[in-house]
Design brief:
Layout: H1 2-8, H2 11-43, H3 47-62, H4 65-75, H5 85-110, H6 114-122, H7 127-157, H8 169-180, H9 183-211, H10 214-219, H11 224-234, H12 264-275, E1 279-290, E2 293-304, E3 308-312, H13 319-326, E4 334-339, E5 342-343, H14 355-365, E6 367-370, H15 382-392, H16 398-411, H17 427-439, E7 445-449, H18 457-473, E8 477-481, H19 485-491, E9 494-499, E10 502-508, H20 509-514, H21 519-537
Parallel strand pairs: 3-8, 3-9, 6-7, 7-8
Antiparallel strand pairs: 1-2, 1-4, 4-5, 9-10
Helix pairs in contact: 1-9, 2-3, 2-5, 2-7, 2-8, 3-5, 4-5, 5-7, 6-7, 7-9, 8-9, 15-16, 15-17, 17-18
């Protein structure tokens, strides 16, 4: 036992640990750098780049690390490339680790919900900002266990450097045991050193996982004197007005007290005002197909500034696709879309814009979007879902962005849930946050894609009430894809019915919903009305 303790403090072995850590650090740092490149190549969408990356992966995952180390140390000098034994071991380990790290990175990035990426793009976030603020924070959290495992593996694999005469821990242990013939004590001490090193990596992994645990962060009290004082100074947040409790703003169209519907006189006056308003959204001969399936063809549509248009139609009629085309989240085959007289996705000279330029254009033209499945950023609070994009995209100060976020949370009745993560909110609450996020930058056009279809029936009303208030108070140009017929009648100025790849019927909401002129429209309204009536009775 005395010899065992002696070996634990022997400088000869401790220097070997230093070389082991040096090789491991070189391998992990180089592997991470090369892995980022390989992952980017595979995610680039370029077939030839992805093929090169996959070919590299096949070669370096399919051959033993020891052969790779021998090749770098003994074969490369024949081509005039000479490195020290430690550098050769580090380079070989990096080349071996790169494809494994690339797969960890790629799976982490692909694991982030696609809807959040679409939401970021709709908010005008360019690719770099989207990666930095939305994708990377979530991907890193899921990748930490795999990275910890890979670090432990690299630490153990560094022992193979002994085959190219690197005086790391394994080689020095072997040499010491051969000279003292005390194999058990020497290798037991060596094994303990490796266990301590890998145990440290595992501990760091656990610390990182705990630090990035969103649920723990959300429930943790404010840290530090300043944070606690600030929380007390703010005091409890007022609950804010419940959805629908706010009185209509002056100038908002009067509504029938019993039914909530605009009176015929109000509708006529509003229609006259809208007819003289400029065109906010114009669709010209728009065509879109998925392979052999035509979604719509030669579609034409005009929406006046301040007009609320409800898009109705059976599932698969192209309502959601049309909305995504309007803000260039979806490409189309032919035709054009104009927002405020500007062709979206195109420069004034008629050139196709890059994705980053389209992101800036969405912001400049003022196009907001609310998605069917909320698509909130899962790693940040309700407040940060609203304030974050204002800072990341528009360059607002933190104070301005937080004030705007709190104002909107108050308006949608969620002031007391500002710090909650999306997964701790109900579906109706999440959709209200999504609506607040969409209108935070004060857009001129708001697109809503089936905003209530993913909600339980009892939550539909609270979301529809928020949209109803927006329509009457904000003066936004709104296009809403919905199946809620009563809501469409209450809120919309015009109904557009899509079916069989074309606009079958359009006209004033009350007229189309109560006296449709086309058989397809009539059948759809009859079926939907029966379904909603039975649902209400249930």
């Amino acid at each position: 036992m005395a010899l065992f303790y002696h070996y634990l403090t022997l400088g000869y072995l401790l220097h070997g640990i230093a070389l082991t850590l040096e090789v491991t650090a070189l391998g992990l740092a180089g592997g991470l750098a090369a892995g980022i490149v390989l992952a980017a190549m595979q995610l680039s969408g370029q077939t030839w780049m992805a093929a090169l990356a996959r070919g590299y992966t096949v070669v370096f995952r399919g051959t033993p690390l020891i052969l790779q180390m021998v090749f770098v140390y003994d074969a490369l000098p024949h081509f005039g490339i000479r490195w020290s034994a430690v550098a050769s071991a580090g380079v070989a380990l990096a080349a071996n680790e790169a494809p494994f790290i690339a797969e960890i990175l790629r799976s982490g990035i692909l694991g982030v919900d696609r809807g959040q990426v679409l939401a970021g793009r709709a908010l005008g976030m360019p690719a770099l900002a989207l990666m930095r603020h939305v994708v990377a924070p979530q991907a890193i959290r899921t990748m930490i266990p795999a990275f910890g495992n890979e670090a432990v593996s690299a630490l153990k694999n560094s022992s193979l450097a002994s085959f190219i005469s690197v005086q790391e821990l394994t080689l020095r242990s072997t040499q010491l045991a051969s000279s003292t013939f005390d194999f058990f004590s020497v290798f037991f001490a060596s094994g303990l050193f490796y266990l301590l090193l890998t145990g440290t990596v595992s501990l760091l992994q656990l610390v990182a996982e705990r630090t990035l645990d969103l649920d723990r962060q959300a429930s943790a009290p404010p840290r530090g004197l300043l944070a606690r004082w600030s929380a007390r100074a703010r005091g409890p947040r007022p609950p804010g007005p419940a959805p629908g409790s706010q009185a209509p703003s002056p100038g908002a169209p009067a509504q029938d007290a019993q039914s909530g519907l605009r009176t015929p006189i109000d509708r006529e006056q509003r229609a006259q005002r809208l007819a003289s308003a400029p065109i906010a959204v114009e669709v010209r001969e728009l065509s879109k197909s998925y392979g052999e399936r035509t979604i719509f063809s030669q579609l034409d549509l005009r929406v006046h500034a301040g007009e609320v248009v409800a898009l109705l139609g059976p599932s698969g009629s192209g309502k959601s696709t049309l909305l995504r085309c309007l803000n260039r989240l979806e490409l189309w085959d032919a035709g054009s879309v104009l927002i405020g007289g500007h062709r979206i996705g195109m420069s004034p000279g008629g050139l196709v814009l890059s994705p980053s330029a389209v992101a800036r254009q969405r912001v400049e033209l003022g196009v907001g979007m609310v998605f069917q499945h909320f698509n909130l950023f899962a790693h940040v609070s309700a407040r940060e879902n609203i304030a974050g994009p204002l800072r990341w995209v528009l360059g607002w100060s933190a104070r301005e962005a937080d004030a705007r976020a709190q104002e909107l949370l108050d308006r949608v009745g969620l002031a007391d849930r500002a710090e909650a993560l999306p997964r701790h909110l109900s579906g109706g609450q999440q959709q209200r946050v999504a609506i607040a996020r969409a209108i935070a930058p004060r857009p001129r056009v708001l697109l809503l894609d089936e905003p209530t279809s993913a909600l339980d029936p009892e939550m539909v009303g609270e979301v529809l009430e928020v949209i109803r208030r927006l329509a009457s108070e904000e003066g936004l140009t709104m296009l809403i894809s919905t199946h809620q017929l009563r809501f469409a009648e209450e809120v919309a100025d015009r109904v557009v019915f899509l079916a069989q790849g074309r606009i079958v019927e359009e006209g004033p909401a009350h007229t189309v919903l109560h006296a449709p002129s086309h058989a397809l429209t009539s059948r759809f309204i009859r079926v939907m009305a029966a379904g909603q009536l039975s649902g209400a009775c249930a």
